[in-house]
Amino acid sequence: MGDIDLSSMPTYKSTDNLMAEPSSPSESLSPNDIDDRFLALPEGIDLALHRAKVWSKYTKDVIAYIEKRAQMDAEHSRTLIKHAIQMKAILKEESFLPFQSIYSTAVEQDIENGNSCLATCSLLLGHKFVEPMTARRADHEKTRKQIKEMWTRELKRMHEAVNNLRKSRALYVTRQQELEKARTGLRTSESGADWSVEKIDKKRRAEEEAGVRAREAELHYKSCVQEANYRAAQLQTVKKDLLVRIRELLSACETTIKTATCSYFQLCHVVSAPLPVQLQSLSESVRNYDPGSAYMEFVKRLPEPQANQTKFTFQPHITTDHDSSESDSNSSSPAASPPTRGPTSGLMSSGDELETDHDFNSKQSFS
Question: What pTM was computed for the model?
Answer without folding.
Answer: 0.69
